[in-house]
Amino acid sequence: MKYKRILLKLSGESLMGAQGYGIDPERLAVYARQIKEAAASGVEIGIVIGGGNIFRGLSGAAKGFDRVKGDQMGMLATVINSLALGNALTDAGIDADVYTAIPMFPIGEPYSKWRAIDSMRRGRVAIMSCGTGSPYFTTDTGSALRAIEIEADVMLKGTRVDGVYTADPEKDPTAEKFDVITYDEVLRRNLKVMDITATALCKENNMPIYVFDMDTEGNLMKMLRGENVGTLVTC
């Protein structure tokens, strides 16, 4: 395999599947099968999942919620998704531990770098919820931080789009896909790979980002084998 340890960032919105809301059990099952196959190959896996299928702090603030309270509600949404994914992984036959950046025992174990690494070394999947644990930071930034902390070889951003494009391919049919792009070019072009803070954090710590379509079953293993199924963001 190309990588020994990965941080996989999953979109909360993708969990909605065809339902358009909440959590689609079939989408969870597809994710669980792919993650199980990757773990069986010997890859150590940490996961961060968003909460946009349930609640987004920024959207809440736009509707009148206090920003800090809204972000805290978003953190709770990530815990719900993490528990759901952990349950799907258990059903698929792979052990998973859910960690929370905010003390929430017994719902999840308090997060620490060393606990997460120990979990992965023992062949378990470490699911890290609540983002950074602080308001005003997205789960993208939380993912970048966790990837750096757990000393991952790469941060994988699993989305419904198969890479980074010059424009939104769902809106612009002339958009062209990048196979490789630098952090600086992502920032200069204002491409929506991740938020600026997350991209800058990865750049400062030389954490490569790989953007790919996680919703297509089999893509995770293709990526781990070195096949070109997305876009690499690097120096």
What report would you give on this structure?
The protein has 235 residues and is of the alpha/beta class. It has one domain (5-234): Carbamate kinase. It has helices at residues 25-40, 57-62, 67-92, 113-121, 139-149, 183-189, 196-204, 219-224, and strands at residues 5-10, 44-49, 96-100, 109-110, 125-129, 154-159, 164-165, 177-178, 180-182, 209-213, 230-234. A nine-stranded mixed beta sheet has the order 4-3-5-2-1-6-10-11-9, sandwiched between helices. The protein has a two-stranded antiparallel ribbon with strand order 7-8. Helix 1 (25-40) links the parallel strand 1 (5-10) and strand 2 (44-49). Helix 1 crosses helix 3 (67-92), helix 5 (139-149) packs parallel to helix 7 (196-204) and helix 6 packs antiparallel against helix 7 (196-204). The model has no long low-confidence stretch (mean pLDDT 93).
Short account of what is shown:
This protein is an alpha/beta fold and 235 residues long. Helix content is 38%, strand content 20%.
